[in-house]
Amino acid sequence: MSDYNFAYLDEQTKRMIRRAILKGLAVPGYQVTFASREMPMPYGWGTGGVQVSAATLTPEDTFKVIDQGSDDTTNAVSIRKFFEKTARVAVTEETEKASVIQTRHRIPEAALTEDQILVYQVPIPEPLRFLEPRETETRKMHALQEYGLMHVKLYEDISQHGAIATSYAYPVKVSDRYVMDPSPIPKFDNPKLEMAAIQLFGAGREQRIYAVPPWTPVVSLDFEDYPFEATKADHACDLCDAEDSYLDEVILDDAGNRMFVCSDTDYCRARREAGHVGRLGEEAA
Amino acid sequence: MSVSLNRAYGGGFADPAVDSARAFRAAMNVMAKPGEIRDLDSAQPPAPLSAAAGTLLLTLCDPETGVYLAGACDTPELRGWLAFHTGAPVVAAAEADFAVGTWAELMPLDPYRIGTSEYPDRSATLIVEMDALEQAGATLRGPGIKDSATLSLPDAAALAGNAMLYPLGLDFFFTCGGKVAALPRSTAISEG
């Protein structure tokens, strides 16, 4: 029992967010404006994702929160506890058991199902913002499908670095219409954006909500001679030996020793429990 | 007195916060997955409105959304019920955020707002009361649909015309008793 309204927000706010989510689903990739509320956490900590989750959760849900793939960072733990208290939802760290997953900057390694909902926390929803600071202009560019500037940016990457150096928040085109910022997920995750689950994106400070329905075509922008490439560190996980997961690099000491571990902590844990052991891992007891 | 009060003001959500959360989940799922049919019956609106249409109105409407009550839906009882539970103003079709009625009552589609090229979300959502709702009839393809889906549409040609306006256009809920389905403007429609 808590003294908060269900899922913290008042009903009128949730209705406003729900209407924005429905329009977002009807026009995949288009950023719907909404009247973002102050939340009991600072901007940058996932206020957009939290508001979308608050409008989406039902008491029957099982909720999971990840921050860069991890269930146990301060940000993930505090958001999980927030909804445990205000929405009385069950919580889990296991991807398969969650019905709603709020994420900061990763897509879980395990394939999501059509009964799951993935809520992204988005810092800068406008993919064109760093190329054109004026909202009036970026809005026109979306209206006219004028995305040449984005290709120029990717071309400049190639001319300077010999390859497309953009490694996260890699721009995508949704359903052959809107160019969208997939939030700062590593481009390794981009191919997973075409999935069975409903994907909702919330940007609190920037007051935007957008969505990608299941199975919507999501294409990472590229060139014929420089095709998109999903990249990751060229190692296996040092704890669970996974070769197919996105890895974090961890500096171990001053002597230059380092290790690579799965960024998705639940994926890594499940593999270790199944008996996989990496270079620096220990046999399960 | 109490009987007429019940008729005008009863039939709302028993537990508004939780009932509307569950109802929105159903509405979101059908909008995200055109062709899917879900249960939606936690409100009991006055006749002639269906439980599903009434639940949608309670879930999505408030003083910020204009509602157009088409044809036989525009009754004093329904106006009173909507005002009591949502506070939503009743407006003409051209100003409506939501419109509710049978397909014939809602026609023609021209007056409704379809959004602007810079704000395609500023468009109306039509809640169409149906005599039957089943996964048969017109073939649907597009976002939210793995290969193809089928849904009994009131007028596939008119709805295909709406889809041609993409990214502008209207979005539809179809309601029948306690069931709901949806058709966003992004869905491509072919007959049979």
TrEMBL record, chain A:
Its EC number is 4.7.1.1. GO terms for biological process: organic phosphonate catabolic process. Keywords: 4Fe-4S, Iron, Iron-sulfur, Lyase, Metal-binding, S-adenosyl-L-methionine. It catalyses: alpha-D-ribose 1-methylphosphonate 5-phosphate + AH2 + S-adenosyl-L-methionine = alpha-D-ribose 1,2-cyclic phosphate 5-phosphate + methane + 5'-deoxyadenosine + L-methionine + A + H(+). It is an enzyme of class 4 (lyase). The keyword Lyase applies. InterPro entries: PhnJ (IPR010306). GO terms for molecular function: 4 iron, 4 sulfur cluster binding; alpha-D-ribose 1-methylphosphonate 5-phosphate C-P-lyase activity; metal ion binding. Catalyzes the breakage of the C-P bond in alpha-D-ribose 1-methylphosphonate 5-phosphate (PRPn) forming alpha-D-ribose. Belongs to the PhnJ family. This is Alpha-D-ribose 1-methylphosphonate 5-phosphate C-P lyase. It comes from Antarcticimicrobium luteum.
From TrEMBL, chain B:
SUPFAM superfamilies: PhnH-like. One of its GO terms (molecular function) is lyase activity. GO terms for biological process: organic phosphonate metabolic process. Signal peptide: none annotated. It holds the Pfam family PhnH. It comes from Antarcticimicrobium luteum. InterPro entries: PhnH-like_sp, Phosphonate_metab_PhnH. This is Phosphonate C-P lyase system protein PhnH. Keywords: Lyase. The keyword Lyase applies.
